[in-house]
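Record type: monomer structure entry
Structure origin: computed from sequence
Chain ID: A
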Amino acid sequence: MSDWPRQSPVDVALRGACPRCGRGRLFRGLLGVVERCAECDLDLRGNDAGDGPAVFVIMGLGAIVMILVFWVEFRFEPPWWVHVLIWGPLTVGLAVWMLRVLKAWLIAQQYRHRSTALDE
């Protein structure tokens, strides 16, 4: 049994932290996962979040953004370039943030339930 305290997958995901110790960084760059935790030496090469986060982001963020686009269009009737200035950067920024959080959450769930060879 591990001596590490149990980490909340949601807390770990929001902070982008190691699922075992909760202190080390999980990401290298925007979306790349580090090979090993710098704090507890957890081998993270065996994780496989796959395309799971992308599916949730595409469906969830796409629906939310489109609802907001239609609401802004019918409520305020701005010119097309205002839509481009608002929704382009907002969608890209939220997509990257959501991908990081969901990827970290899936890795934390894999670690917690040992569905991969992350720990031993």
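Annotation 1: Residues 9-113 form one domain.
Annotation 2: The helical segments are 9-15, 52-76, 80-113.
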